[in-house]
Amino acid sequence: MSSKTWFLLASILLTSMPTLFAQTSESELQLGIEAFKENQYEKAINHFDKAVELNSTNTRAHMYLATAYLSQYIPGVDTDENRSQAEGAILHYRQVLDLSTDRDQRLNAANCIAYIYLNMKNWDEARKYYQMASDIAPNDPEPYYSIGVIDSSRCYQPGWRPEPDWACNRTRT
């Protein structure tokens, strides 16, 4: 091979090495974001996982990882794979709640967890996280509305018996 060919091969290898051997949480996060933007969710999840592995307190990596899992979750589909996507999202959104002091990150995480539980018809957990969201942002009407939807939905579930203090069990006077 000529020296020009070797030089060309070496320069290609050197320019691709950061992608092949990203060593920091932030570089893995950036690679994950690039893959996510290209709808390559599995690749994005791998990079976000690596970012979390390299720095378990990186709330942005947890947030992106949760969002990548949520992007693959299909509400109403009851399969092991779909539940796994939901559980992965919930796990990392909870990490954001545990680690972050940023109001917007916490609000987003609480709303997303509540949304997942709502779609899984896990009323108690959905209500709990919408309540958390309303505590974080008391002037936001969405969590209150969602709590009302949950309470209404619970009242009309076959076989569900409300507690005596539930509104759907009260009679008007």
Could you name the ranges where pLDDT drops below 50 across 5 or more consecutive residues?
169-173
- What is the N-to-C succession of helices and strands? HHHHHHHH
Which CATH architecture would you pick?
A: Alpha Horseshoe
Number of domains: 1
Q: What is the chains' assembly state?
A: single chain
Count the helices. How many? 8
Query: What's the helical proportion of residues?
Result: over 70%
Tell me the CATH topology. Serine Threonine Protein Phosphatase 5, Tetratricopeptide repeat
For CATH, the homologous superfamily is named as Tetratricopeptide repeat domain
The SS-based structural class is mainly alpha
Strand percentage, roughly?
under 5%
Broad CATH class: Mainly Alpha
Q: What shape does the CA trace take?
A: elongated
Mean pLDDT score: 86
Radius of gyration (Å): 22 Å
Count of extended strands: 0
Q: How do the helices and strands line up, and which of them pair or pack?
A:
Blueprint: H1 3-20, H2 25-37, H3 41-54, H4 59-72, H5 80-99, H6 103-119, H7 123-136, H8 141-155
Helix pairs in contact: 2-3, 2-4, 3-4, 4-5, 5-6, 6-7, 7-8
Structure characterization notes:
- It is built from 8 helices and no strands.
- The longest helix is centred in the middle third of the chain and has 20 residues.
- By secondary structure, the chain is an all-alpha fold.
- It has a single domain, classed as Alpha Horseshoe (Serine Threonine Protein Phosphatase 5, Tetratricopeptide repeat).
- The termini are far apart.
Give a short overview.
The chain has 173 residues and is mostly helical. It is 72% helix and 0% strand. The termini are far apart.
